[in-house]
Amino acid sequence: MTFSASSPVSFVRTAVDTEIARFIERRRTQLLEIGSELAPAVDALEAMLSGGKRLRPAFCYWGWRGAGGDDVAEIHRAAASLEFLQACALIHDDVIDNSDTRRGLPAAHKRLADLHAAEGWRGAPEAFGRGAAILIGDLCLAWSEDLYQASGLELEALHAGRTPFDAMRTEVMAGQYLDMLEQVREGGDVEATLRVMHYKAAKYTVERPLHMGAALAGRFDDLAGVYTAYGLPLGVAFQLRDDVLGVFGDPEQTGKPAGDDLREGKRTLIVAETLERSGAAARARFLRHLGDPALDGDAVAWMRGVAEESGALAACERRIDDYVGKATAALESGLLDDAARSPLADLVVAATDRKY
Amino acid sequence: MTFSASSPVSFVRTAVDTEIARFIERRRTQLLEIGSELAPAVDALEAMLSGGKRLRPAFCYWGWRGAGGDDVAEIHRAAASLEFLQACALIHDDVIDNSDTRRGLPAAHKRLADLHAAEGWRGAPEAFGRGAAILIGDLCLAWSEDLYQASGLELEALHAGRTPFDAMRTEVMAGQYLDMLEQVREGGDVEATLRVMHYKAAKYTVERPLHMGAALAGRFDDLAGVYTAYGLPLGVAFQLRDDVLGVFGDPEQTGKPAGDDLREGKRTLIVAETLERSGAAARARFLRHLGDPALDGDAVAWMRGVAEESGALAACERRIDDYVGKATAALESGLLDDAARSPLADLVVAATDRKY
């Protein structure tokens, strides 16, 4: 997803980046007082916190503005706290999936494993990298709370914001666990995949951050329904767009090799739809290719063909259109502050209108 | 460490156990609504939260009472939140160390790996167990905060308690990282080992929980110094007693095989003292044995002999005595509420007077 420099989203990103950098610098000082050997751990943490899309902070911020909140540094900080939660999720996810890269850079566990190897320390570099990354992710999770609490918002507001914040953390971890389970059980039918998307993408990325913004502004009770009506379909549509791009995306646009999700064997909705809509022979061959790290261009082209001819691609696109319509309609609510209506509409387009 | 049923510590344990059980039951309901397949994850989490010594809650509780706080359910809940933080540390530590047992029961990652194997799921059971345990530990860390915030204490009190609570989490993770670093660098001289003990044991287990109790009662400013003077030496003495027992402990008393820490290769202070006080030949042989999983009784006896004859054991015992004296002296402060003086003195004895 790319945003123009002047968009309401890139504005949030700049403000959030500033708060993240300030917070890390203060914590770096504290950690280096404990031990200068902690520097590589802070560097790895900082690297994971740079360059994200800041989607969750953007929804939290516009959830607050939609509830009539002002543009103040306190909400930038509270919104920025969600990036530390996300950093924990990404760092731990990379350990769980044993993925060595993240946004084209070495994953946290890989950085620390490389340090171990370069220093010639005892034992296996991978084990050290994994252990260090677990601890760095834990730090991110603890710091997420610290930044939230130190945002400078009123204590009553912070207390009100806890309900969605707590739910969000439990739900994303539960969603990750269910996702892991779907992978190993080779389940991943349409229904199970939608449930994982509901928790990992729709609630975690869109709905709960909006709820937090509303709750922090003291407007959870009247706005939660509006934000749910907007956030759940948008979150699923956003993830679906990502999934379609993972199969059909142009490497020049996505920055990933063609058919990357197929090579990784991800049990996405388009895969589930393809399997449910194909005959036994095509399904068996599709499953043989799925997750093959040596998948070549011909096989990717064949798999794309099956996804298209089975009607799976069209089903996904219909679903995206349908959900985009629902999310957009929810913005007509008179409860929303006008300041947020157009930015929230922009976010729908930005999240779902990417081409392949 | 064992406490009599009527001790002020076992009293805290019972109250804390009740709050932990209540909290988990509420969360279990929430998780099972997300997906019934989450049941084994909640079971593993619950198992890790049963049977601990509840040391950190005890120090938090008596820190509060020493500051004049009443015996109310709110402080039981706030104190219980520290057990969820500790559960995260233990679950992740077992993954990092690849330890399959904890308190004689399967570690969380082992339980989930066993489930994977029993169900015949795809992929390596160990990788699934590790991934699941990372997520379960993350849940514990998030829930620690949730229980703290839902304790029912005044928002101003909770805000004041954050300073030590935040510091505690950063320090324990930094301490774990430094500990991991000492193991792989084969460093672990006396000074480096004392630094890890300072963060992982003294501050995390004793000083910060006491600080939290004082801060929650609005008495951090005047009591922090007293609790530091009591807590830091006591924390190191407690860890030292554990380390000495790890080498000299009677299996019938400790529940672990004789010389277990030697077999695991732990870089404890008694090991550091032994290495610094031995000649080159003895040091080389000691290092060859250290961490040998097949270490036999004769080798353990020889290593114990070196630790004793080098003066390392006596040095550790002197240090324990010295620190116990300092911790006990700190309790004479007139700032402490009398209700806590005798329980805090009992805790010194309970933590350091275990025999081998």
From TrEMBL, chains A, B:
<dbReference type="InterPro" id="IPR008949">
    <property type="entry name" value="Isoprenoid_synthase_dom_sf"/>
</dbReference>
<dbReference type="GO" id="GO:0004311">
    <property type="term" value="F:geranylgeranyl diphosphate synthase activity"/>
</dbReference>
<keyword id="KW-0479">Metal-binding</keyword>
<dbReference type="InterPro" id="IPR000092">
    <property type="entry name" value="Polyprenyl_synt"/>
</dbReference>
<comment type="similarity">
    <text>Belongs to the FPP/GGPP synthase family.</text>
</comment>
<dbReference type="Pfam" id="PF00348">
    <property type="entry name" value="polyprenyl_synt"/>
</dbReference>
<protein>
    <submittedName>
        <fullName>Geranylgeranyl diphosphate synthase type I</fullName>
        <ecNumber>2.5.1.1</ecNumber>
        <ecNumber>2.5.1.10</ecNumber>
        <ecNumber>2.5.1.29</ecNumber>
    </submittedName>
</protein>
<dbReference type="InterPro" id="IPR033749">
    <property type="entry name" value="Polyprenyl_synt_CS"/>
</dbReference>
<dbReference type="GO" id="GO:0046872">
    <property type="term" value="F:metal ion binding"/>
</dbReference>
<dbReference type="GO" id="GO:0008299">
    <property type="term" value="P:isoprenoid biosynthetic process"/>
</dbReference>
<keyword id="KW-0460">Magnesium</keyword>
<keyword id="KW-0808">Transferase</keyword>
<dbReference type="GO" id="GO:0004337">
    <property type="term" value="F:(2E,6E)-farnesyl diphosphate synthase activity"/>
</dbReference>
<dbReference type="GO" id="GO:0004161">
    <property type="term" value="F:dimethylallyltranstransferase activity"/>
</dbReference>
